Amino acid sequence: MVEVLEKGAVYFEPTDVDGLINQINSLTKDKGIRESIIKEGTKQLGKFNWDKTAKETISVYKKALQ
């Protein structure tokens, strides 16, 4: 899900076995790519938290009940 993970993940077509293998190989063999993905993924974590999610969910429920 690019809209959630952005640059914090590697992507491949779900039916493309070779694409999956290539991405796994790049992550295991290239320290620079691996570190970049970890850095970007960690950055993405800051955008999401359970407190914010709970508050936004409650807000949606309250609006739906009005």
Topology of this structure?
Layout lengths: L1 H4 L11 H13 L1 H15 L4 H16 L1
Global Rg: 17 Å
Number of helices: 4
Largest sheet: none
- Secondary structure: number of strands: 0
Give the class from helix and strand content and strand pairing: mainly alpha
Question: Could you give the distance between the termini?
Answer: 32 Å
The pLDDT mean sits at: 94
Order of helices and strands: HHHH
Q: Could you name the ranges where pLDDT drops below 50 across 5 or more consecutive residues?
A: none
- Share of helix, binned: over 70%
What sort of overall outline do the alpha carbons produce when their principal axes are compared? elongated
Strand content: under 5%
Spell out the key features of this protein.
66 residues; elongated; mainly alpha; 0% strand
Overall description:
The protein is 73% helix and 0% strand.
Nutshell version of this structure?
The chain has four helices and no strands. It is mainly α.
